[in-house]
């Protein structure tokens, strides 16, 4: 009898522990699920012009997003997300700014923010030759095996395993500045705006470079972060270069499988850069490489402060996008009004190709130098703390380990390759030695997509 009581008591304890964990899991994960879904549905419907049904069947079909309910309000230009009726979150769309998740501020306060947008150029890009426009002229490139290239590109649109779809949506290949391959999945075209996710980090890096060229920032100087100005603050020695190279040493956890600094920042904080600025120091600056979206959003806040409120929302467009023909790209802000420089950009595939071309051409576009001399070289130079030589100024690199270059991210691709890399398989590869830019956009959750093999197959088409 006594033994039976012990067993029952033990089972009750286990049951209560499981129940407690379940409640905790729901408490921390449901707001992330509803926030993620509301924000992405809002952007896809109101910014990219896609249907609710398509977004539900694709972006929001995977676990755990498929347990959420997301309601689109076309009159209000908003999306509200819930999970089993709980954890209500709302994202609102504003013309020229895209979608913003309401966090820590009232909806009225967010909608009431004052800002000046860049004047959109009134031009017909179909009449303007590539790359400033979309008019493609005949190109004869004898150094490219076109049949082999067509096969390499088409191959990644074929679903070889329907249980683990790759979902490639767009591919563009540039050689020597010209489009030599371009393909889209059914339902998508050259005018489809697609999310860049962490490729946005590379845009934030470019905006930083522009401010360096203007003399407003210096990579070697201490990062202009007011929270760290006290000489006794251990974060006081963090430089702008540390932020660019992801070597700040801040205690920030980038983990999307559970509640972490990254998920709190993206789905629960109004001022993402400020959240990061408040994190304590974990490692000596410059000694440890740790990829953090927090660093990039801190960088985005620095950009805002250096540009000033009057011209901030127009700055990326007037100083970068419109100068290189990226007329169909938009950066989205957090609830405080700062661009989410780590993650939230939408653009068409050709715009991403233009961005890659800017870096292929050493920061010069349309005969104008936009990035300072040496910026692209510095961008593609590995951080000393990156063990595989895999990271520079908010770009991923393929240099490899110092003692063994064969040990690199993309072993079948050239070591001078560097790239923008985003969640779900967004890539812009820049390969100077081959005069190549490769853009691949998709919705990939499967590990069966071998991006190294794809890029290598394209490289092999250059004779």
UniProtKB/TrEMBL annotation:
Coiled-coil stretches: none
Limits of the Beta-lactamase-related domain: 169-441
InterPro entries xref list: Beta-lactam-related, Beta-lactam/transpept-like, Diverse_Enzym_Activities
Entry protein name: Serine hydrolase
Keywords annotated in UniProt: Hydrolase
Gene Ontology terms for molecular function: hydrolase activity
Keyword Hydrolase: yes
UniProt xrefs under Pfam families: Beta-lactamase
